[in-house]
Amino acid sequence: MEKRGVIIGIEHNKTLIQLGSGEANNCGGCKLHGICRPDKTGAVIEIPGSTHYSIGTEVTLTMNETGSIVGAFFLFIFPVISAVISFILFRSLNFAEGICILISFISMIASVALFLLFERLFLGHIRINPVEDSEKLP
Hints:
Order of helices and strands: EEHEEEHHHE
Number of domains: 1
Number of strands: 6
Structural class: alpha+beta
Helix content: 40-55%
Radius of gyration: 19 Å
Shape: elongated
Strand content: 25-35%
């Protein structure tokens, strides 16, 4: 996965990168879906750690395919699996169906919360590289 953007800030041990407006319009196919904050001018992504590049530097963000697949699994698929397993487990313990549904929703929310807690592990694999002069758009 490779995305282009511009460094717009470096604060509190994180680097803020503004992706292009074309990237914000293509959210569904993006490997960073659910992590960035898209708006009309583009999407802003917070990468953990500071960088030695200055604000205004045009950069490319790269992430290996395995990291993006693992991140997508823990963000989208694992919460559903945990909800189903918790429902089946508590139903087999003869809890009422309503209680089992409530517990499965709590399990799903807890799974997403755990992902957000450990989000830095997934974002730590994103590499920031400057765009060479020959690659810059005119």
